[in-house]
Amino acid sequence: MIEDLLRRIYRNISGERAWGYMSEIYSRDRWSSFDGYRKSAEFCADMLWLFDTEESETVRFPADGETRFGDWMMPLSWEPLEAQLEIIAPTNERLIFKLKGNPNRLVMWSAPTRPEGDEGKLIPLERGTPDELERMEVRGCVLFTPSNPASIKPMAARMGALGIVSDLLKAKGLHDAIQWVNTWSDSPGGWAMHKGDSRIWGIMLSPKEGEQLRRLARRYELRARAIVSSKLYEGELAYATGRIIGRESPDEEILLTAHINEQGANDNASGAAALIETARVLNEMIRSGQLPPPARSIRFLMMPESYGMMAFTVRNLERLRRSPAAINVDGGAGDYDSTDSNLTVYLDPLCCRSPVDGAVAWIARIFYDEIVRRPDKLKFHRYTLAGDNFLCEPLIGVPNPWFEMGDGGEYWHNSEDTPDKVDPRSLKDLASLTAGAAYILASFDRGEIERLCGEGLKVLPEDLRSFLRMKVPPGEPGSGPRRLLVGALTLDGIPPDRWRVVKGSPRWWGPYLAAWWWADGNRSLKLIEEMLRLEFGSAPEDLDEFFDFLGEMHLLQQPAISPPPKATHNTV
Q1: What is the longest distance spanned by two Cα atoms in the chain?
Q2: Residue 241, Cα to own-chain centre: how many angstroms?
């Protein structure tokens, strides 16, 4: 039955159509303009509406640099208008690097210069670390670093530097590519720029351009002039959503998510395109009688990564808690013949035990074994946080596997991630599996899902099978610390000099975030430490101090401690 269902969906999915949606999203998102980001969400909602998806809409939320959803402070809105870096001395060695045609040239949230530009001595850095910078006099100068400019941005601004130039590129061998830098926070491990963060500009060069500039810097003392026209403002972002309404339990929704609003065609315009094609095909097959309406609803959500997902989550928390499952689609759909374009299914963490992981594993295994006959293109992996697959955390409790297909190369977050790097054949596979898994999860009852899980466990590698079979003690209500917010922990809004234990934001997967998730009020500190050892092999020794810090910051409540019994005295 599953094989036949997947085959029929596969025949209806068009990789070429999905490639067209991807190209449209990419054209709006590639400039990192918040106005373009809003238009991208509107395009996605329009496509859902065009394909008869019920309740299709664009929902806006603040992007003002101060509103919070959970522990996530929303980004400040930004518009890049123009940018140019010019080497003006010596006059016989002039170089000009322009934004035009190179959207990644300007670091996101770069502040504007004066209208006539910022002019100063160019100082090359060896490593580009804060330690190196603090020993230098940089006021009124332009810094040239080989590292991520975000790592020295707060210190550079505090020391009076005019701006930062960088030729960082994380990929190897792409000499003309320009890295996309989308972090401009003043907090260690932070992400978006907030209202109170320092303001300075950053300009990116390709490795080839950087080497050209370094050669000049070895021969001469250089002076540079930068002209940046940009706008930082309190605005809005938006997410697009709509649903196929279930016939029996419409309030139970299988949620499909894919983030938009990044510069890449693979990451992640392709993921959103796969969701749009899923909506088109499922609606068409239901309307034509090829498929019965699912028992539960299927909701589509395309949103800014993490920030949009948090806005949706906080606003729809009770609805989400009724969801049996969610699937996140994030990564790419690169060259079909590249091993980098295999699909990896990331399973749920230890704090989320359900039959959904095994069922999804079985559906994916049938798809790659029997439908496309490429069993080599499927892998499974332990949980990690992609940004949006956090609904599995215990205060929400929605199983949340992640489908990640690679981009076919080393194009992540650089200017080479263009539509020609997206393969319609890969998009067809990605959309087909997404549609098939969503429809099955929305149509089968729990007993059938548990049966699929049993089959799925058999095809997983032994280490994953053992992990999914681990028993999790239920805990006791009121026995342990309870956090006051859902989602990942960022420490946004808390000055870093007040942080204890952690040196960087714990927003990504690791023992401290896992401990935060386990703090649901039902588990003692000792039990949380045991769970961390099962998942990571060890637990931080300073977890009690970490929780004390979170309590002081009003992010977590410690369990009430009963007073000791009163002493009794014998009387004569």
Answers
A1: 106
A2: 18
Structural contact between residues 384 and 511, judged by C-beta atoms closer than 8 angstroms: no
Give me the residue spans of the domains in the chain: 36-74+236-421+428-460, 81-233, 484-557
| The two structure tokens encoding residue 364 | 């994916």
CB atoms within 10 A of CB 288: 9
Q: Give pLDDT tens digits for 510-540.
A: 999 999 999 999 999 999 999 999 999 999 9
Q: Residues 25-51: what's their mean pLDDT?
A: 99
Contacts of 246 (CB under 8 A, 6+ apart): 252, 253, 293, 294, 295, 296, 297, 298, 442
Give the β-pairing of 77-89 and 95-98: antiparallel
Q: Note whether 348 and 281 are within 8 A (CB).
A: no
Q: Are 148 and 129 in contact (CB under 8 A)?
A: no
Rounded CA separation 544/525 (Å): 7
Same topology, domains 36-74+236-421+428-460 and 81-233? Answer is no
H helices present in 238-306, as ranges:
269-287
In whole angstroms, give the CA distance from residue 305 to residue 385. 12
- Binned at pLDDT 50, 70 and 90, residue 92 comes out as confident
- Note the pLDDT of residue 474: 83
337 CB neighbour count, 10 Å cutoff: 10
Which tens digits make up the pLDDT trace of 419-432? 999 999 999 999 99
The 8-class DSSP code of residue 245 comes to P
E strands, 16-108, in order: 54-63, 68-69, 72-73, 77-89, 95-98
Q: Answer whether 418's CB lies under 8 Å from 30's CB.
A: no
User: What phi-psi label fits residue 478: left (phi over 0), alpha (psi between -120 and 50 degrees) or beta?
Assistant: left
**Are 304 and 34 contacting, i.e. CB atoms less than 8 angstroms apart?**
no
Map residue 301 onto helix, strand or coil. strand
Q: Grade residue 572 by pLDDT with cuts at 50, 70 and 90.
A: very low
Domain at 81-233: CATH architecture? 3-Layer(bba) Sandwich (3.50)
Q: What are phi and psi of 317, to 5 degrees?
A: -60, -45
- Calculate the dihedral angle through the C-alpha atoms of 216, 219, 225, 228, rounding to the nearest 10 degrees: 30
375: helix, strand or coil: helix
Residue 116 burial (10 A CB sphere; 0-12, 13-18, 19+): exposed
- 296 close to 398: Cβ distance less than 8 angstroms: no
Answer whether 124's CB lies under 8 Å from 220's CB.
no
| Domain range 36-74+236-421+428-460, CATH architecture | 3-Layer(aba) Sandwich (3.40)
Predicted model pTM: 0.96
Token pair for 128: 């580009």
Burial pattern 164-179, b for ≥16 Cβ within 10 A else e, equals bbbbbbebeebeebbb
